[in-house]
Every structure is written in structure tokens, then in C-alpha cells.
Write a structure and sequence with these properties.
By secondary structure, the protein is of the alpha+beta class. It is built from 7 helices and 8 strands; from the N terminus they run E-H-H-E-E-H-E-H-H-E-E-H-E-E-H. The chain has a domain of about 150 residues: TATA-Binding Protein, CATH 3.30.310.210. A 6-stranded antiparallel sheet has the order 2-3-1-4-6-5. A two-stranded antiparallel sheet has the order 7-8. A hairpin with a 2-residue loop joins strand 7 and strand 8. The longest helix is centred in the N-terminal third of the chain and has 24 residues. About 25% of the residues are buried.
Length: about 250
């Protein structure tokens, strides 16, 4: 199946990209118009992970030629963003377009090659910079592969990476990387739990005082065997229960 013909590889593939919120916004476009156009013109499925995380995962699935088209559109969109930001700044050197792929660690060896031979070959033949992260992404068996260069170099580079990934499929189970939210979106206040999703359910201004009161209530801890809930309104069963409060740094 993985014969490389002139028309590209004729197999279905999934490529995952790690993007910052700002980059994702650029790909989605106003009212989702940009991503809709990318889906229609490339024929690839493009999914963007939910959540108010600083990082999001963009998954591109489809026949390889559709994936390359989608990648080309993303690379050119990022180049356009760079050009727009350049016109408003005094910077003279133009930064390269950078994409971060998320690749199962078990495939990274093939991508690097013996003594780094494969990655060197990809760099030299495409003119793109390619770096494979030494560490796995948190709570996963995946690594980030950063590609930077001109849009054309990036497209050529992605094509070569796809060939490698098809020739050496992942070994064993892959635990996919899932970005974590910037702050834990559940806050207990005054015996009431608030969930914060995106910009909704914004907590009350007096919430911090409530958090402070809670902290006061938490010490001393409820003796074992006593069933008074540590938080009013929350059932304390089992009697010894731990509540972890995460408060974002800026607060």
C-alpha cells in the first residue's frame, strides 16, 4: 500500500498538530470560515480539540494527498499571518513558518534514523529545520516534532515524514497527548462548585474571600470518624476526604 507514486501515497493517514490558541484562532477564522474552506478544498477531515487550554490539538485525517493539501493551506495561512504581523512591526528579518507535529515516540527512532541519518536527509532534501523533542509530552507516549522553514519546505518535509510513518507504524499502545487546561475549571466556593468553561460561569468577585474562608475551615481537619463535611453542602463520605484547590497564578 505504501508505494510512493507520483500522485502521492494512496492511503489514509492521521497527523496530529499541536498549536497555540492564537494559531488555532487563525486556522478557524471568523465564524469558522477558514477551517470550513480548508476542509472543503483539501478533502481532509480537520478536527480541533475542545477546551480553554493554552494548547490545542489539530487532527488532520484523510488520504495522503488531502493531508498534504490541508498542510499546504495551513502553512500558507501561517505565512500570511507572519507577513501581516511584519507589516506592523519594525522587525527586518522574517521568522520562518513553524508547525509542531505530535508523533508516537515509537516512530521517532525511524524518523531520526541510525545516527541521525534520516532526519539529516530530510533536512538537506527539503531545506526545512526538523527537531524531535528528547522528552515525551506530559502523560503520553508521544513526542513533539518541530518543523520550520518556508511553506514549500514544510510541505516537502511533511511528505517525507508521512512516508516514514507509513513505513514504520507505531509499536505497542500509544497514549495520546492531551493538553491540560490553563487552570482547573472547577472551583469550590461557599459549599457551591463553580465550573468555568471558556469565558462562561465567571466566578463572583467575592469568590476569593470565600476561598480564603474555606482554607480557614479546612484546618484543623475533621477528625476521623466524624461525619461533619469539611465543606458545607458537600457530603464528606468517606469521612477523611481531600480537596485540592488550584488557583491560577495571576489570581
Amino acid at each position: 500500500e505504501s508505494k510512493v507514486s507520483e500522485g502521492g501515497l494512496n492511503v489514509t493517514l492521521t497527523i496530529r498538530l499541536l498549536m497555540h490558541g492564537k494559531e488555532v484562532g487563525s486556522i478557524i477564522g471568523k465564524k469558522g470560515e477558514t477551517v470550513k474552506k480548508m476542509r472543503e478544498e483539501s478533502g481532509a477531515r480537520i478536527n480541533i480539540s475542545e477546551g480553554n487550554c493554552p494548547e490545542r490539538i489539530v487532527t488532520i485525517t484523510g488520504p495522503t494527498d488531502a493531508i498534504f493539501k490541508a498542510f499546504a493551506m495551513i502553512a500558507y495561512k501561517f505565512e500570511e499571518d507572519i507577513n501581516n504581523s511584519m507589516s506592523n512591526s519594525t522587525a527586518t528579518s522574517k521568522p520562518p513558518v513553524t508547525l509542531r507535529l505530535v508523533v508516537p515516540a515509537s516512530q521517532c527512532g525511524s524518523l531520526i534514523g541510525k545516527g541521525g541519518s534520516k532526519i539529516k536527509e530530510i533536512r538537506e532534501s527539503t531545506g526545512a529545520q526538523v527537531q524531535v523533542a528528547g522528552d515525551m509530552l506530559p502523560n503520553s507516549t508521544e513526542r513533539a516534532v518541530t518543523i520550520s522553514g518556508t511553506p514549500d519546505a514544510i510541505i516537502q518535509c511533511v511528505k517525507q515524514i508521512c512516508v516514514v510513518m507509513l513505513e514504520s507504524p507505531p509499536k505497542g499502545a500509544t497514549i495520546p497527548y492531551r493538553p491540560k487546561p490553563a487552570s482547573t475549571p472547577v472551583i469550590f466556593a461557599g459549599g457551591q462548585a463553580y465550573t468555568i468553561q471558556g469565558q462562561y460561569a465567571i466566578p463572583h468577585p467575592d469568590q476569593l474571600t470565600k476561598l480564603h474562608q474555606l482554607a480557614m475551615q479546612q484546618t484543623p481537619f475533621t477528625p476521623l470518624g466524624q461525619t461533619t463535611p469539611a465543606f458545607p453542602g458537600l457530603d464528606a463520605s468517606p469521612p477523611a476526604s481531600t480537596h485540592e484547590l488550584t488557583i491560577p497564578n495571576d489570581v
